[in-house]
Prior knowledge:
Layout: H1 3-20, H2 22-33, H3 37-70, H4 74-94, H5 96-115, H6 122-131, H7 134-147, H8 151-173, H9 175-213
Helix pairs in contact: 1-7, 1-8, 2-5, 2-8, 2-9, 3-6, 3-7, 3-8, 4-7, 4-9, 7-8
Amino acid sequence: MQSDQIELLIATFVTFFVVIDAVGVAPIFASLTQPGGQAYARRMAIKSSVVAGIILFFFAFVGPWLLDHLGISLDAFRAAGGVLLFMIALDMVFETRGMRRKNRAEQVLAEEEQAGRLEDISVFPIGMPMIAGPGSIATAMLYMQNAQGDPLGVSIVSAAIAANLVLTAGIFLAAGPLIKVMGESVAGAVTRIFGVILAALAVQLVIDGIKGAFSL
């Protein structure tokens, strides 16, 4: 690989890792799957990653085609994606994103208790929107659009998405022991650090989009 291709791989992987925030989702996943035991948690971890993968790859490959037919330029989408990711970064830093996730998890747990049975949480809320949410979908479309049909670039973006989904499933499988070791406060601190990194990446995307749009 050339240096620019290695940079693309690293940038794509890091961006997806930060946007998905598997470490931040892990405590919620652990609380949702705790009543079902280890086998249930393992099944939900694998299935939710597969569901999220289907959604992300669908938008990664169909999204650029859709943008072309809507007449939206790459620079415009890059800037818009940067703004969206920056808003997600603010949520991560100030923990509003975590609060929404926690409220959603409590609602699902309450529904399970009322029904007296375990629900399949792999599609909602874990697969979507906690893994394949607006931020990760926009990121998939953005980087695939950046690849501009180059086979190697498309392969690199696809590999970064797949690697993050595998890593997310692994973190979910280790969620119980991981949370006991880390504690919620440490997990929250890690999420805040990811938020700062994502904010910097988002600002860079906005700058690149504006420079491209105005030929600066």
